[in-house]
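> forwarded from #structure-qc
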């Protein structure tokens, strides 16, 4: 039975999913399956964009027949001749004998090579157009993204880019069709990266050329041949393509790939990873004999620093490591710093050979010293691994460099009072878990980007609201206005939602579309958001979140931290005569005593002793 999905009034997805495929292209495991996308447009003329792989041909043909109804198919546009998208061409031609093939000259050559037929087609070139009634399609050549005949098609009527292999991802669609229906960053970005790096990673220049052409178009939606259709936050994937295509890493961190026969090379890699983590450097590790190469190649595209550790085998590099390195070189990896660990019980050669292979890639900088192990790590090599970790740390552009010579001067130069000069707003942050509502006061909310509309907040982990957001991934911000009284801060701050009901006695029960309460009194606007990423910063978690709803309540000025201090926060009472006191600079709580314990925590606002000053 047909299984189609509507995209717009006149565009329908008629593709199919395959979850039985073991190896895509015979090389890449696809544990989450793969989708083969085909799109049918119903205008005055009907147009089918590409077909599918033969394994899902039956479902596809049912889908096309169902979506066409009693109409005939007028055009079949072939953008890419790789058989995972072209296997059903002959069936379409047989079923719809009046259909006209539309493709470029190179594609027609490939069609006839693959089918052995001598098919006629309407040949298009760069910037040629096809009008089908309401819609006008513009053909844009995209050679080597991923084969030489590839072209993409832009619908200037509905501003849709049919992007062929570009912007695709591994993974079956599982009932969804649009990227905004799933948590793409969390659940699919790794697969999008693996798809990109392995399928078109070699062709960065050609992807750049396509991005440049696409940049000149007003694109509202992207319809790729694999994976989800993009109708929101297009820039989140496009920005990744920009980085990937110029071989720039996404994140500072170290990918360690090792090949170990009896665990000693692995031991060296583990020790290095531990030393790096102690420096606060992110690490990922792969045993190249276990992890599919496609995953390691994707990781190499993600991380800034690569470490390869290999035992020597048959006087060369261990087999699985050698295959991985050849694959990486073939995929054109560039712009990375690399460190090498070798092992050899009698004649270690793997380190030099690894350097030789990767030395063929552009802009690869090696950490000078190879750590060379004889059979197993000894004390001297333990020190060498520490030195390697130091060298890796020093190669990071943005890490805090340890400079023992002037460390104390730098420490002395940090005056935390400078932080109070930053301009902060004040917000009631609310969340909901089941039937439980909660809220707290925060002062760190910032708009990060306009498109997509994204904000960040930093939340103390001690807050119950933090636990709720970690669990549910959603929150509301009520932006407080200058009229906010101190009672709002008493209501939502100064005590914990773990053991009190923050909304007790709070009159109204207003909620946004996400079901979360908000504070309308004394707030000038409300923002609902859904977490896309979170970062652990010790005492706090920083949440990046996409705005899902927002509205303005009044034009009253937003409350700043400074205004709160000057006008709202009660002035601290002087300590009783003869007694010393320390006042919390955050909430005004007064600790009476001659000295303040270093580990003292303000019982009201939970700030530490660093935020107290002597009265
Ligand atoms: Fe999915 Fe290059 O084909």
């Amino acid at each position: 039975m047909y299984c189609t999905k509507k995209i717009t009034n006149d565009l329908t997805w008629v593709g199919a999913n395959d979850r039985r495929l073991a190896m895509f292209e015979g090389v890449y495991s696809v544990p989450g399956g793969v989708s083969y996308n085909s799109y049918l447009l119903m205008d005055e003329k009907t147009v089918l964009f590409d077909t599918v792989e033969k394994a899902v041909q039956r479902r596809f043909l049912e889908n096309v027949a169902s979506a066409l109804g009693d109409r005939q198919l007028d055009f079949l546009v072939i953008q890419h001749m790789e058989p995972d998208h072209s296997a059903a061409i002959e069936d379409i031609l047989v079923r719809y004998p009046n259909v006209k093939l539309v493709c470029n000259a190179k594609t027609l050559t490939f069609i006839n090579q693959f089918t052995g037929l001598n098919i006629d087609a309407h040949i298009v070139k760069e910037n040629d157009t096809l009008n089908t009634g309401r819609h006008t399609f513009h053909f844009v050549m995209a050679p080597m993204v991923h084969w030489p005949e590839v072209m993409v098609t832009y619908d200037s009527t509905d501003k849709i880019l049919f992007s062929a292999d570009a912007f695709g991802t591994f993974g079956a669609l599982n009932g969804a069709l649009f990227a905004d229906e799933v948590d793409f960053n969390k659940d699919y970005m790794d697969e999008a990266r693996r798809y990109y790096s392995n399928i078109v990673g070699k062709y960065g220049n050609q992807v750049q050329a396509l991005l440049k052409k696409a940049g000149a178009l007003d694109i509202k939606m992207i319809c790729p041949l694999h994976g989800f259709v993009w109708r929101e936050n297009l820039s989140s994937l496009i920005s990744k393509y920009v980085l990937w295509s110029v071989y720039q890493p996404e994140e500072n961190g170290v990918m360690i790939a090792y090949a170990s026969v009896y665990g000693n090379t692995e031991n060296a890699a583990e020790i290095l990873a531990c030393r790096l983590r102690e420096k606060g450097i992110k690490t990922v590790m792969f045993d190249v004999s276990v992890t599919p190469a496609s995953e390691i190649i994707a990781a190499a595209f993600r991380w800034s620093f690569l470490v390869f550790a290999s035992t020597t085998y048959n006087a060369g590099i261990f087999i699985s490591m050698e295959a991985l390195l050849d694959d990486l070189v073939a995929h054109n990896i560039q712009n990375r710093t690399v460190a090498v660990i070798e092992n050899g019980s009698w004649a270690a050669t793997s380190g030099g050979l690894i350097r030789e292979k990767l030395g063929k890639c552009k802009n690869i900088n090696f950490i000078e010293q190879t750590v060379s192990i004889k059979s197993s790590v000894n004390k001297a090599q333990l020190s060498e691994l520490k030195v390697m970790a130091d060298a890796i740390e020093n190669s990071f552009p943005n890490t805090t460099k340890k400079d023992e010579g002037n460390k104390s001067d730098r420490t002395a130069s940090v005056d935390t009072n400078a932080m109070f000069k930053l301009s902060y707003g004040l917000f009631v942050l609310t969340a909901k878990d089941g039937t439980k509502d909660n809220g707290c006061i925060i002062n760190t909310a910032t708009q990060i980007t306009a498109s997509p509309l994204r904000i960040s907040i930093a939340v103390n982990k001690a807050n119950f609201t933090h636990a709720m957001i970690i669990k549910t991934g959603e929150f509301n911000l009520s932006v407080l206005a200058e009229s906010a009284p101190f009672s709002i801060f008493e209501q939502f701050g100064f005590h914990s939602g773990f053991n009190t009901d923050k909304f007790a006695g709070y009159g109204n029960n207003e909620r946004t579309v996400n079901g979360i309460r908000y504070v309308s009194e004394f707030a000038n606007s409300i923002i609902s958001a859904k977490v896309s990423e979170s970062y652990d910063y010790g005492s706090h978690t920083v949440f990046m979140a996409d705005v899902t709803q927002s509205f303005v309540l009044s034009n009253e000025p937003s409350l700043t931290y400074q205004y709160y201090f000057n006008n709202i926060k009660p002035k601290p009472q002087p300590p009783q005569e003869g007694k010393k006191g320390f006042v919390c600079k955050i909430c005004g709580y007064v600790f009476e005593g001659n000295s303040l314990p270093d580990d003292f925590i303000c019982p009201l606002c939970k700030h530490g002793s660093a935020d107290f000053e002597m009265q």
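QC bot note: The two ends are 79 Å apart (CA to CA). Residues 80, 82, 84-85, 146-147, 165, 225-226 surround MU-OXO-diiron (CB under 6 Å).
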